[in-house]
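[stage:ingest] chain + small molecule (dioxothiomolybdenum(VI) ion)
[stage:ingest] validated
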Amino acid sequence: MSEETPYWLDDTVPETPQTDEYPAPWKTTTVIGTRVTRVDAYERVSGTAVYPHDVSLPDMLHGAILRCPHAHAKVLKIDTGKAEKMPGVRVVLTGDSPGADMGWYERRGTFYGRLFDPHCRHEGEEVVAVAAETLPQAFDAIRAIEVEYEVLPFVIDDEAALAPDAPAVHEGGNVVGKPSVRERGDLTAGFEQADFVIERTFRTPCEIHAPMEPHGSVARWDGNRLTVWDSTQGVFSVQQAMARVLGLPLANVRVIGHYMGGGFGAKLETGKYTVFAALMARMTGRPVKIFLPREDCFRVTGNRPGNTITIKIGVKNDGSLTAMDYKSLGSNGAYRYNASTSTMAVYLYTCPNIRAEDTTVYTNAGKARPMRGPGFPQCAWALEQVMDEIAQKLKIDPVDLRLKNIAEMAQYEDGVPLTSNHLAACLRKGAKEFGWAKARARTESDGHLRRGVGVAACFWGYAGGPPSTVIVKLFSDGSVNLNMGASDIGTGTKTWAAMIVAEELGVAVERMQIEHADTATTQYATSSGGSKTVPSDSPAVRAAAFAVKKQLLEMAAEELEVEESDLELHDLTISSRSNSEKKIEVSKLAKLDRQGVVIGTGYREPNPEGKFTWPYGAQFCEVEVNTRTGEVRLLRFLGAHDSGRVLNRLTYDNQLFGGIVMGVGFGMTEERVLDRQTGKMANANFHDYKIPTMMDVALSHQNAPIDRPDTEFNTTGTKGLGEPATIPTAAAIANAVCDAIGIRVTDTPLNPTQLVRLIAEQRKEA
Ligand code: MOS
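[stage:predict] done
[stage:export] tokens:
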């Protein structure tokens, strides 16, 4: 390593040593890092994959939910008489039904209203549930229920909710908890040292997760045992929630989630519909299916909070940051979540003097949930545009400005080291492969089509860890059963897991069957979220395969009468390194034949103590802005991400592409619109709520993976990618637009409606 190379680019970091339980980091690999098609690709594209939405049981009833049509109201009276007598109706469930008068909880167990709360704090709160022989009968019954409401004044605007006379969403005011404050250094002194100060306010309206598969469940009782098929990111979390609210032992609740059509954080919580299905199934003795209509998914199953972010930043003429005053306001909707955004601002760049304040307010709107990189894309939209403005002002390359300010440590904690930080490599490799310098140096155009390029960087503040338990079974014919509890939320979890077993045991991916995401038959795993499924579970898969391999080598050593250390396993054949005569196929091992199966149990090793691990990334894009129409065409996008080792280059590329597409939606097309007159959502459908389509994504996509294993963090050297993939996208687009036409767009969505107005204002000023 040359002298200029900072230590965080040095590959020679300490490695997790091999122990009896944990294998040493891979040196070379033959399967890992290649492009492997998903093990369930055929099932997914042919329609034979059974998603929870497809589950249909004999004798199954269909449920529907009556929801409050007002933004804020009290239920005074419910008359279900007519509905109960309608054809096909088998049960009508209200808060007065046996077993339904219960408190409601969010996923970490804190109280949040009631299962049926007569105080409806947003449009779409649950009032009555019905189960009938057919879905149309259930919806007809819902329409026949008469509810008397006392309609209350509502507040849907974050700033208005702070006013002392604002309608109270909850008793005790609309500010959720105390605003959280993180401080470091001396802000006043920091601003005094600055050569100039920039202050800007940014707004990002509320975004909806909008997964393709709606939220829903099927519930069935067998005696006192409940089985639930749920479209979820974590079957064990649903098992825990259902056991808690129904007062059942965990062992009596089986939750299955083999496929699920998208979650993005919205499916980390258990829904009330799951409890309704279970209660109505118990009352009728028949399975009950409830899947929410699309409109309800928009209104009640979570969202990314909208935020208003003000950044005041002090800068020296050499580009170093001296002070940052960061303020964020956002709403979690009607129930407690967390709309904070400041984490990325506190950690990404070196700045000795920081004050970051996050305020979350209640409003009469659907509750927020974690959404792909919670808080980070909002922060990136603001912070990465301010960084761009600093570079413009100093006339230095925005890549160089970022390289200058990389935080080598967890600076807020005063220097807790990181196991790896390859942000510099993301910026350098990304710029090189994008052709950044050349693209920036293009000739100015004065026509109505203007090109520009932009860059933005990010990290993601989580990387996973224990617990995770995985079992690998190798049968006497050399075929393998891989057993893991994690949900594959569409990202290719099963595929990389099979690749790891193939790498360790030399069993072809096609020779494996995978059991996953079933609380009754698979091993405990945490929910698939936080970009941590790979770094949390892949080392456990590897340890399980390693445990199988050890037993096979022991058997072979005995049968071949050689030292175990002299043996190696390749393509299901064990051979001696020193004597080529000595070898045996795994299926010929006498002991394996007798015992039928070898079982290996793998556990996720602990994370290194006293260090943090985060993935990093930088994205580059080129846009063409039409100054007559305000349309922005995305010409090129490049993602350069440091996610540790790349397990499967194919699903890695897919993940990055999907994340960037989602970032395009956040930055350019998506916005929840609440009607100011009624407080109701005005665009709760895919026609009026615009998620990006193939017409909106960049014409060309390119990835430049950094692919440096973080072998100090875990035995597969992996970090996450799912959330970082979407964090810097919108800011990179805004920076490219500013490069093209000199307009800084501070509010999302950056759409033609807004841009035409800004271009007109720019002309007026000129
Ligand atoms: Mo994610 S927001 O952890 O699914």
